[in-house]
Design a protein that fits this description.
There is one protein chain. By secondary structure, the protein is α/β, with parallel strands linked by helices. The protein has one domain: TIM Barrel. The protein contains nine helices and eleven strands.
Length: 233
Amino acid sequence: MLIIPVLDVKDGHVVRAQMGMRETYKPIETPLSPTSAIESVAEGLRSVHPFPVFYVADLDAIENGSSAFATADPLSHLRPKPDVWLDAGFRSARDVEEALAHARTFAVLGSESQANTDVLRAFGTHPRLILSLDFRGDTFLGPPAILSEPGFWPERVIVMTLDKVGARRGPDFDRLQAIKDVAGNRKIIAAGGVRNVDDLERLHDMGIAGALVATSLHSGELGGAEISALMGK
């Protein structure tokens, strides 16, 4: 099972995300790092476990549509270098192409940022294109055709429940199962609500391929030994 630490970045700082209310996000305070600088927080997370992949959400780009691929650059000093799953509010084929030009960058196509299915159709077969199906409550954020046409989904699909993020209420198990049921052999990644190892064990038992995590790492509820055991499954 792949466990992926999340770096939510706003105004150049890692912030603590909670329930998708981005206007309220503040620079993170964590025992893993003395500052909210991207480099420092990433190093702190690596002190817990040698994560091979980081998820970087450029919240300024997601909100404003600006392109800021340099957000991932501060992770280049980590050894070994991680892969970066970058969500930078991609809205155009050109932006996705620029991201995919970097060999260790995976472009996360957020459904909430899409006006139609054109970009998904153009890049859905690319091995480093990841689709994020974004939900707030029971509402799907994005063109309905993205959700209703799983044949266009890429190999990896994130199920992002924004109101679960940082809320310590557990993952949206029912929605994850519903998406998995129609996804064929695609790898489903859970995002939002993971509290502890019990949640991750349940996701693994469901056949969920991975999970994005943040709060439980900074709180210490997920430790290195537990993560190593899960990553070996």
